UniProtKB/TrEMBL annotation:
Species this protein is from: Dyadobacter luticola
InterPro entries: Gln-synt_C (IPR040577), Gln_synt_N (IPR008147), Gln_synth/guanido_kin_cat_dom (IPR014746), Gln_synth_cat_dom (IPR008146), Gln_synth_gly_rich_site (IPR027303), GS_Type-3 (IPR052725), GSIII_N (IPR022147)
GO molecular function: glutamine synthetase activity
GS catalytic domain residues: 183-618
Protein name per UniProt: Glutamine synthetase type III
Similarity-based family: Belongs to the glutamine synthetase family.
Lineage, highest ranks first: Bacteria, Pseudomonadati, Bacteroidota, Cytophagia, Cytophagales
Domain GS beta-grasp: 84-178
Superkingdom, taxonomy of origin: Bacteria
GO biological process, one term: glutamine biosynthetic process
Amino acid sequence: MTFRSKAFEIAQGRISPTIAPPTEKVADLYGSNTFSDDVMKTLLSAEAYGKISNAIRSGSTIDREVADEVSAAMKSWAISKGATHYTHWFQPLTGSTAEKHDSFFDLTIDGRAVEKFKGSALVQQEPDASSFPSGGLRATFEARGYTGWDPSSPAFLMDNGGGGKTLCIPSVFISYTGEALDYKAPLLRSLVMLDKAATGVCQFFNRDVGKVTPTLGIEQEYFLVDKALYYARPDLLMAGRTVFGHSPARGQQLDDHYFGSISPRVNAFMVDFEFEALKLGIPVRTRHNEVAPGQFECAPTFEEVNLAIDHNALLMDLMQKVGDRHNFQVLFHEKPFAGINGSGKHNNWSLSTDTGINLLAPTSKPKENLRFLTFLMNVVKAVHDHADLLRASICSAGNEHRLGANEAPPSIVSVFLGNELTKMLEELVNKGEITLEKGENFYYKLGLTRIPNLQRDNTDRNRTSPFCFTGNKFEYRAVGSSQNSASPMIVLNTIVANQLLEFKREMDERLASGEEKKVATVEILKRYFTESKDILFEGNGYSDEWIEEAKQRGLTNIRNTYDALYAYKTEKTISVFEKIGVLTSRELHARYEIELENYVKKLQIESRVIGDLALNHIVSTVVKYQFKLAQTARSLTDLEMLAEAEPIKEIIRDISSHIVVIKKLVGEMTEGRKTANNIDDLFERAKYYGSEVKGFFEEIRYHVDKLELLIDDEDWPLAKYREMLFLE
């Protein structure tokens, strides 16, 4: 029995575990493993609770006395629930989360054992930063880096298995000189500035608004593969995707997996991780089968952006831990299997006020819809003016396989508003000169009475659009499933904040000159629409016609990562980020370098995996099988059964032709990789990997996949698509 057949036998023999529901109600279970507001209110003094609540709301500084009281309460709460260690939980620029566990256990001077957790340990820690990517912000020998507590995201308890829990404290991560080495620090900066800018614009419509909070709902797509089959695929293990594999006769063409009945084994996994997620305060609500076989999706209730991103990063880690219990490997790669849909992470983004208003929701009141139009058009204008930067924010080697692959949004950034809303905006622009009249007539003349119809969802949801308006929010569909959503949200928050500040500046100037507020607002919005309408597209983003039309409109179609990332280092980008105070020029250049380096390393790994599998697994196995065929053909020839021997000889010749090409291409790819590795300039190295080395991937795959159809099923060394994708 081969390793592959043994793995398949193990996978087939799995029995769906029974997951016992919690004894308490879900509402009581929710947040039970978080240091929540209710827990703080119970354990802290009224004064300390007031100060920490104010710090969370307004960003004010937390003094040492309060930090000491909070740390004591955290320690007491965590130990009572079985925690033995604590860690600052942070999100470095590796794309995953990081943690260094320290024990509550300590010794006094006289040698007595105590449990200790000071306020200083809560507020700041010093993990070794030398091995985290910095993009040149510090030298490798400069190891010092700091993590700092983010009180706006609740601390939580994580059970890593094997006994004992860890108190995890969400934190920022900065260098010794103060630059951001993570996603959270610039995200928090962008949220503060977006709040300030949006609140300023809200003041034109409602003086009662004192705060604007961006909200986010992240839909997470993923694949499940049995652990045994996962370990039977070295490419999945090393590269996160299958570099070889012939499409099965049946894939997703019947559309029977989408929203289909969830198998008992998968459902047990989903129920298990949902219960664990709820304990951690992650409000997961939706689960379903996705389009491709073996693909699924989960989605939470909308939350404040910072918390939503923390929860998504935590959820991905949690899903892997729970997957182990069910003998599943969770695949977050954007394109783990060829020929079927890849996975994205749809970011549903909106703006809410402290008065309970969704600023991106149209209403039945014309005056409120002028506010809605203001925020809608400022977002569209921001995306239009910084489309390349938004494209750069979702770049990765994995997403490069997915974008534009006839199932995901194309690499052309466009905005979908829906026919009705676009038509209304066009009519608004075409009204010409505006005559100001009292009351509702003013809005009627502007065509604003048409907007309330949108509440009935009379516009479709365009799944081919990378950035689409869906009734009361914008959905950025191009984000990759393995990515940290902070990257695109930092960009979106920053460019929208910048645009809102520009809108306010112009409004203030017009009002100071005596122009009527309503007229000034509409005149600015009309110009924004005229300047931004080229990015609006209602049609099929998958079509070849759109590629040509987008070119005529002047929209960019940046297909590869190394070119797209250049947007991070343009003067235009640097100017906006430094003006808003989110990232400095040094920090932007660092992120550019880190993403390019990551791209190179990912392709380097994939190239090595392809070469290893092709020569040491495929060709070696095929040669052995070819020898069996040769013996059979020789025996038939000795028996003078020449006609019967000829088809076997033909198969041998076909196999040989593929082997020759594979060995030639792998050799050329290896030489190309050596050439790339000797290129000093990082951009040129990334370009060579992306254009030259990567160019061999599909060619080699073609011949290996052809061999899969020629070799006896029992002899093929790799787990096949039909085994991995259709396993219940």
